[in-house]
Design goal:
- The chain is 68% helix and 4% strand.
- It is mainly α and 151 residues long.
- The chain is built from 5 helices and 2 strands.
- The chain has a two-stranded antiparallel ribbon.
């Protein structure tokens, strides 16, 4: 059975908005370093980082341009609400990071929640390719965080 016949190419602005919301703290971080900025350390997982970056780009491409033909209109479903909660708690993680609180829990908030937001949103939109790439990104992002930042 061909799963791809259920999809079409188009543009989903909500996928782009989610990506921009998740990336906003990163854009700020690029411009304004945090007081105790451990995230600027050199990575010891370059191959995992490359795979993660490719999966992240493919996630965003799928969220923005791959549309399930049978998905409903965007509404406040439990998955969308959970996505919003993930983004809000992710922002709280960044606030903690910028106040100088850097521990395992903050690193995990900054690592897991954006990935989970992508996965939940893709599941709501019935976007299986985005779920697959977001899950692969989540695994790589978690490996990166654990190896590089969690003692």
């Amino acid at each position: 059975m061909n799963l791809f016949h259920k999809y079409k190419f188009g543009f989903d602005v909500s996928g782009l908005i989610l990506f921009l919301l998740v990336m906003l703290p990163n854009f700020i971080w690029f411009a304004v370093p945090a007081p105790y900025d451990v995230l600027r350390a050199e990575s010891v997982t370059p191959v995992v980082d490359i795979v993660a970056s490719v999966c992240q780009v493919l996630t965003v491409v799928c969220l923005c341009f791959v549309i399930h033909k049978e998905r409903g209109k965007l509404r406040f479903s439990p998955l969308v609400i959970a996505t919003m909660v993930c983004v809000i708690v992710y922002y709280i993680g960044w606030l903690l990071y910028y106040t100088g609180i850097v521990n395992v829990w903050v690193i995990l908030l900054l690592t897991i929640l954006p990935c989970l937001a992508f996965i939940l949103f893709a599941a709501d939109r019935k976007n299986l390719p985005a779920v697959v790439f977001a899950t692969a990104f989540a695994v790589c992002h978690l490996i990166f965080a654990v190896v590089n930042y969690i003692p």
